[in-house]
Design a protein that fits this description.
Layout (H helix, E strand, L loop, with lengths): L3 H20 L21 E7 L2 E3 L2 E4 L4 E6 L8 E3 L14 E5 L4 E4 L7 E6 L1
Parallel strand pairs: 1-4, 3-8
Antiparallel strand pairs: 1-2, 4-6, 5-7, 7-8
Length: about 120
């Protein structure tokens, strides 16, 4: 037969053991915070057409690392040369030729054969 006095001792002990088990061990550490997500720019290409003695568009906005493709769609030869110091220049582009430039900074350019032809690439 179970007596009331025996259950009075067992019940508090069971409650204390249950609370200890629920609290876990002091060695447990919180999970580390996830690393912040950073946006990555995937380089793309943009086109500039050379036609009717001008660059189309004459102003182009791109991201750093994008490739700008200049294509001579005119009937005469052209080139693409950085202004004001000629830091870079394309080869002589015959009709149908293309030249690629990877945009690393905003640049003004012109055709050194036809100096009235001018354009710019704005790097954001």
């Amino acid at each position: 037969m179970i007596t009331l006095a025996g259950n009075r001792t067992a019940l508090p002990i069971a409650l204390v053991l249950g609370l200890i088990a629920a609290c876990g061990t002091p060695d447990q550490k919180a999970a580390p915070a996830p690393a912040p997500v950073q946006a990555v720019h995937v380089p793309t290409s943009a086109a500039v057409s050379i036609a009717q003695m001008s660059f189309h568009p004459d102003t182009l906005q791109v991201q750093r690392g994008d490739t700008v493709i200049f294509t001579n769609n005119d009937v005469v030869d052209h080139d693409v040369t950085e202004l004001p110091d000629s830091l870079w220049t394309s080869h002589l582009m015959h009709p149908g030729d293309s030249w690629k430039w990877v945009a690393d900074s905003t640049a003004y350019y012109f055709c050194s054969i036809h100096v009235v032809m001018r354009g710019r690439v704005i790097v954001e």
